[in-house]
Amino acid sequence: MIERLSLNSLKFFYYVAIEGSVTIAAERLYVTQSAVSRQIKNLEDLLNVALFERKNKSLVLTAEGKVLLDCCQNVFNQLDHCVISIKQQKYKNNNLILSCEPTISMKWLIPRMVQFNELNLGFGITLLTGGGPLDFQNQEIDIAIRRNDFAWGEHIYSTKIIDEFMFLVNSNQQGSSNLLLSTSRPKFKNYLAKQYPVISKLNTIELDHFYLCIEACLSGLGQTIASGFMIEHELDHDFFQVEQCLHFDDSAYYLLASSSIEEDHRKVIFRDWLINEMQQTQKNLLNKFGFISKQQELVAE
Predict the structure, then answer these.
(1) Which CATH architecture group holds 166-246?
(2) C-alpha span between 92 and 95 (Å, rounded)
């Protein structure tokens, strides 16, 4: 009988069984209702049993249908594990290609790459710098670190890594009337004007990238606002004086991928490592300067 049994029919039966509706099953499978009904009819004819009965406008499994559903769940779970295993074999010993914003790459990620490689996880990281929208296939990227300041689309899988935290800093004790801002975040000025009006009244000098703002601040050209991840080294060595810690609501870093991260063990390992490292950086810097994170604020409330 197995040679006459259609895997497609079993798949259609499975979705009707778990949804209790031909209509919903058809929507999930992107086929017509008649196609689903036809597959169910073919399966019932082959097995010579009724798999469903209609009660109060819903489809309910018969005793035979329940037996078949249990079987399908076991088979499909095994197929899922098999597909994931095959993909992991493909990825084994291959580098993970990561795209990350330039300043975060230079100032935070690259200094940690030696430490990551020393873990001997069986794969390395190939780092590409870039920001904004992604084309995973054409750019040959596996994963990307991005802030949620643009719409990446519903087809992209995303995992939140950590909330953004930013400092207003100066390289000297006297302060400055100049504020160095990066043009890479165009909504920055409007947000400052709304949430931090005193800061927004400073004389603004705009530069193309955060790393230019950081270097200009180190040279004494003015104050700047930068992510704690971008100025960790300068803060650890007291090159900057912290004037204020700024919390940006709903601003966070995400790990993006074109498919589920769980399907690739390399992505899972890197995600967990990244979350741990970024959380530790944030905790250390906020504690050093006597600030608390947004999560701690929520707990305190």
Answers:
(1) 3-Layer(aba) Sandwich (3.40)
(2) 9
Question: Could you read off the pLDDT of 50-93 as tens digits, one per residue?
Answer: 999 988 777 899 999 999 999 998 888 888 777 766 665 555 55
Q: What is the pTM of this model?
A: 0.66
CA triplet 214, 220, 222: central angle to 5 degrees?
Answer: 70
Q: How far apart are CA 254 and CA 150, in angstroms?
A: 11
Rounded-to-integer distance, Cα 135 and Cα 198, Å = 40
The conformation of residue 289, written as its DSSP 8-state character, comes to T
Instruction: Tell me what the mean pLDDT of segment 182-211 comes to.
Output: 83
User: From CA 209, how far away is CA 132, in angstroms rounded?
Assistant: 13
Whether pLDDT at 281 is above 60:
yes
* Contact yes or no for 172/241 (Cβ under 8 A): yes
Whole-number Cα distances in Å, 281 to 107, 200, 228, 229, 286: 12, 27, 8, 7, 9
| Same CATH fold assignment for domains 2-89 and 166-246 | no
CATH code assigned to 95-163+252-289: 3.40.190.10
N-term to C-term CA, the chain = 64
- Identify the pLDDT of residue 2: 61
Contact 261/91 with Cβ under 8 angstroms?
A: no
Question: How much is the average pLDDT of 112-121?
Answer: 92
| CATH code assigned to 2-89 | 1.10.10.10
What value does the mean pLDDT take over residues 197-222?
89
> Distance between CA 192 and CA 199 in Å, rounded?
7
Distance CA(209)–CA(224), nearest Å, equals 12
pLDDT higher than threshold 70 for residue 219: yes
